Amino acid sequence: MKTNQTNIKETITNGETVLGIEFGSTRIKAVLIDNYSETIASGSYEWENQLENGIWTYNLVDIITGLQTAYSEMKQEIEWNYGVTLRTIGSIGFSAMMHGYMVFDKTGELLTPFRTWRNTTTGDAAKELTELFQFNIPDRWSIAHLYQAVLNEEKHLSRIDYMTTLAGFIHWLLTGERKLGIGDASGMFPIDESIKDYDKLMMKQFDEKMADKGYPWKIADILPEVCNAGEDAGTLTEVGAKILDRSQNLQSGILICPPEGDAGTGMVATNSVKERTGNVSVGTSVFSMIVLEEKLSAVYPEIDLVTTPNGSPVAMVHANNCSSDLDAWLDLFREFSESVGQKVETEKLFEVMLNKSMEADRDGGGLLSFGYFSGESITGLDQGRPLFVRSPESNFNLANFMRTHLFSAFGALKIGMDILTKEEGVLIDDVLAHGGLFKTPVVGQKIVAAAMNVPVSVMETAGEGGAWGIAILASYMRNKESDESLEAFLDNKVFEGIDGKKIFPDELDVKGFEEFIARYKQGLVIEQTAVENLPV
């Protein structure tokens, strides 16, 4: 029987809740759930990355402030709704954007500003390491950032004592443990699926390449320990409890699960950890995660090989740019409506404008856009310039304008997915989609179904996002049976009775997207020219 209003207070007081906190690209969110995976309370903190000295970053002050604010809002909601003060929690999990570069010295000092996944300044390093390992190393992976710093002869390298992700940093800060979930770790350094740990041969190859540099560390010394879903990854320290809860009501000693990346929590939030399933996560960036039955036949720079939180192999197609340009255009339309005295709520604006795209020509009427706020590795661009272009013969109307920007948001993703489905013959039974775009019914699903040519479902739980997903992983650690797999736990204890709303690809939409993507590929030279000739 599920928790109801009358016993939620007791559940909170007895510490039978589970907390998940995720650092997304535009929002930090805290979600408290019960043992039935239902949300009790939530809190959030809005933030944006900054381009500073050519580097996309978030500063440490915002990271800590956001953590504390999201927790505080969630705690206040409990006090308002249930009249109790949150003092203990059954288990906690932290998640964040994958990849990037955070390195610290022996005193815990951050040696460079946090370099996020959005940076595409590591092309030379990524190419060299891909050739060395015969394994695709994307620009945004931590090892690419580290080796690019080596190529650049950066002064901080000799002082490195620890390298981790944003989720790993938060976990370390609050537990003192240098641990990381395998899904997040697989975006730092390649994983050997047979041992569910970093690939030993590749670590040896990297150390040999670094041997003449004279640094006082080997790669194994500075990487976090790899943990699998369900493992105990430490407890909240007294210092950690005071950092998390500024009111200092929260007790220490709470169990904390392995920290994970947003890709892994998205898979959990959509029950997409089984073979031939996958998910698409839509936000500032967009990525698909397809759980593989067997290895790919070749190395593709467009496809990352990572893992689920329980170590299963996954093909990941990650595009740096998705919703930012679309959001910017919608803000422009909002500004116009307010200028003529018609204030429109955000949800209504999205609903009207996205639905307008359903009236468009199937290919977008010959229009073209590139929503590249930053570089895009899949299409070989190290910088971005948002761009909209049309010919005099294009059918330029609002419906086609909106459809073109929606198609463009998934353009780079489609290029990578076509390699999987058309060249590698990867079979996909179903894809679960999540992200703010899907709050408007049908439209986003139809676009993604057309891009990937597979059925696309959206679950009610998908709106909960990665914070809910990491809470589920913390719940799995605490509540699983001794031999219960993550797949079984999700099927039987989280998603039982929850049906997704499925949309199948429309043949005409698929054909229209194919016409658009041909135009998109041809137009990449225009985007490259804009990068070369339009200063930042």
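Next protein, fold it too.
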Amino acid sequence: MKSVTEGYDGSVLRQKMKVVNSSKRISKNQNNSLPALSILAQDISELAHNEKEIFSPIFQRWNPLAAGVAVATLHSCYGNELKQFITGICELTPDAIQVLRAADKLEKDLVQIAVEDAVDSEDGGKSIIREMPPYEAEAVIVNLVKSWIKTRVDRLKEWTDRNLQQEVWNPRANKERFAPSAVEVLRIMDETLEAFFLLPIPMHPALLPELLSGFERCLQHYILKAKSGCGTRSSYIPSMPALTRCSTGSKFRGVFKKKEKSQITHKAKSQVGASNGDDSFGIPQLCVRINTLQQIRTELGVLEKRIIADLENAECIQEGTIANGTGKRFELLAPACGEGIQQLCEAIAFKIIFHDLGHVLWDTLYVGEVSSSRIEPFLQELEQYLEIISSTVHDRVRTRVITDIMKASFDGFLLVLLAGGPSRAFTREDSEMIKEDFKFLTDLFWSNGEGLPADLIDKFSTTVKSILPLLSTDTESLIEEFRSLILDSSGSSAKTKIPLPPTSGQWDPTEPNTILRVLCYRNDETAAKFLKKTYNLPKKL
């Protein structure tokens, strides 16, 4: 079967060859900014329109699809030149994009002429279109841009790793007190985004998600590394000690192993002053990590606005493209930053209370006589940490960090009272001093109205305030309340043995284990007899 273009007048081909040679000479011998194939595409388009207007009406006497046959031949001739050009493309260049876009435009012009010419034919021009295999210039552009994106995302990932390896989280690195590595990563992202929108392509909206997805992976990696190794609440809070009877003569610590006091004191002081960048997990350095995640979260909003502006200025924007895509950009990063900040806030809080100040909280507070082991030393050292955090942490996150420290200090205070080991023993008379100490603790965070809001302090001090009255309740009443709660929850009768309630660590004045622990630390004979008889806990005080 003969091709529909077979037998076409050779004059068109000869004219086409002249155009090819002319275009190449223009590109080589004159100062012309357009590549030869771009000029050729323009000339062929002009030639095709001339053919349609001048020659085709004459040739239609012999071939009703004369214009279609002409443009199909031109399409094939240019396609041969384009195929050779595409084979030699190794990377995205301005010349490559210009040629491919010119080829795409030429093909649309030629197809349009063929379709219009064949509108009244039996097959509607399908036979002519089959003679015009698509150039797929747009697909080539897309693949080149995707390769361009991959190269730059890989480079960003490499830079992210390199900068993170060198990062020491020094609070003195800049006045904003966030990591220089984040500044560098965000700068590279900004430059890459600018270069992307400078690409002379018509499909920015379609390819943008791939670039942003690469950005998102790199920043997620950064966020993960920024919080890695910093610990969590469970990393620092001690495990619950076994239920035991208080023994005022014992030197055993129920929560921590005993350490040399001079070593612990030296360690605590060095951590409070660790602002020289030597300790990447010191409190000031953890604050820098928080500031860095906050800065990333802020910059995401700036980047989002810039992307919208760039899309509005980009070529070939379809209606609704911007609005539909905006909400899905960086949708995982903002929550990741928030979760990272929350983890770091808790790590700082519990590290300070249960690790850095453990030597005061566990080895000093209420050990021996309550009157001689009050909370003042703990408050003095805690205040130093609060000063460091107030001067280091970003003001948008400062309240959250200090609130978490307050919550951790309340947890530590209760743990001392209810699970502080056998070296602590309390009388009903001690309860007033303990209540006063807790007020001193809350006052530290209120700071005469310059610290945390009073309603926030009240909110998180509710549990402690509800349990403190148990310390002043008489022992007989505590025993009766404990017995009643146990029997009600277990369904046992008063004659059966009272089961030992499980330790949940969720302290509550109506929870049996909480009341039992108050009894364990109650320094009187009635409590000792009850515990010995009921659970065979040592009677000795």
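About the second fold: Residues 1-10, 25-31, 250-278, 318-327 have pLDDT under 50 and may be disordered.
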